[in-house]
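> tool_call: predict_assembly(chains=two)
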Amino acid sequence: MAGLPRRIIKETQRLMQEPVSGITALPDENNARYFHVTVIGPKESPYENGTFKLELFLPEEYPMSAPKVRFLTKIYHPNIDKLGRICLDILKDKWSPALQIRTVLLSIQALLSAPNPDDPLANEVADAWKSDESQAIETAKAWTQKHAI
Amino acid sequence: MFRALRNRSGLQMSTILLTVKFSSSCSCPVDVDLESSVLDVKSTLSKQLQIPAEEIQIILAGRILADKSTIKDLCIGNCSVLHAFTQKPPEFDVKVGNESADGNTNTSVRKGELRYQYFVFCKECQCLQPGKLRVSCQSCKSGYIILYRDPDNFDDVQQRGRINGECKSEQCNGQQREVEFYFKCTGHQGEERETAAVLKHVRPNRKHRLCVVCSETGSPVMVFPCERRHVICLDCFKSYCVVRLNDRGFTENENVGYSLPCPVGCPNSLIEDPHHFCLLGVDQYERYKSFATEEYVLQNGGVLCPAVGCGSGFLLTEASRKVTCPTCQKGSHQKDDPTIDNYHTVSL
């Protein structure tokens, strides 16, 4: 871990010692800035029981710029596109150097509980969500069953 | 702590030259050892001036110096100017008694705490330097004033009229006067009344608090004025400002100007004095100033000239549809610049 800023070392240690419920984040053996992440689908959401894999990368400028996070598991969600990119304000203009890996992953978990079709990234999914929400939730459940379990 | 005592070649000196001013027409240069006491200085003066040592009182930064304090305790640099006055001992026997009785340890402890309490941005040194607080009389501008009480906070120092003192100069002759505070850089020997901008959010990190960005415990640090007093180290402060400047992410506020909140985003956490942005270095500070001006112009209904390389901002006085940019018109562009014809008017 030579040359790794103390902040990243401390955050990694804390993620290991005090893991967040429903979230795991393990640094890659060869790259301490790359994390293998899993997020468990929150209860009473269409993603319940699913285990979603994500990748998280801390760029050189971190924590001045946001971590880059992407879903690797396919997911049916209005704010996550088919490439796994996430529309979340704190990963863009609302990023602050006082936020951490932990807070980012908690926000992503919260996004699974509360999809926001009014600020969509995947337009088709958002349209489906707005026109027939119960049908969209069924599709999301089916995708979870197919890809995340 | 010896920083202020180094001479320009960086060598530590064991003696320094002080100037003790008795009045505008009478001042005495004295060579003093750092280990010598205020009383030793008084004895030296006493021999030079033929005045009994017990009649001499020396003032520094609004306080009468206790006899037992050493020059080292005072944290003053070479070529410092001290002020003095003479007074028959009986008149303030009690006061002197107090000063030296509870005084001595107290004075040095208090001075110890004061060490590096303030930081200034020094234009001469072009960097952050420990600063020292100095006082003068509002009326005669001299340093012969003795404070009635010490300042407790920045408001006491920065707002006029909160602290008064007794001025011992010939002109004021013991009258009650308003006190003027100012800050000096400890990094170089300046003129007696040379001032430096104090950076009120920069403090020593005595409690080893963690920087909210890098989790290190460096010192000094910026302490934001939010309720939780979030702390950021100066390196992170610079990168935080530059990143936000690149995004034009500063906030224009009518009270504090173009500023930044604490990185956590707490309410009421804007940096209250733009001098702090001097810490970004000359180039970034220039950028900060031009962005700040542009933001001010735009928020107050002004316009910016769109001509390439111009960008002058101006506030409109009349409700006309088109205005001519005052800068371009004055010919600040090349005469054959083809863009001028197209751009020297700004449509609203």
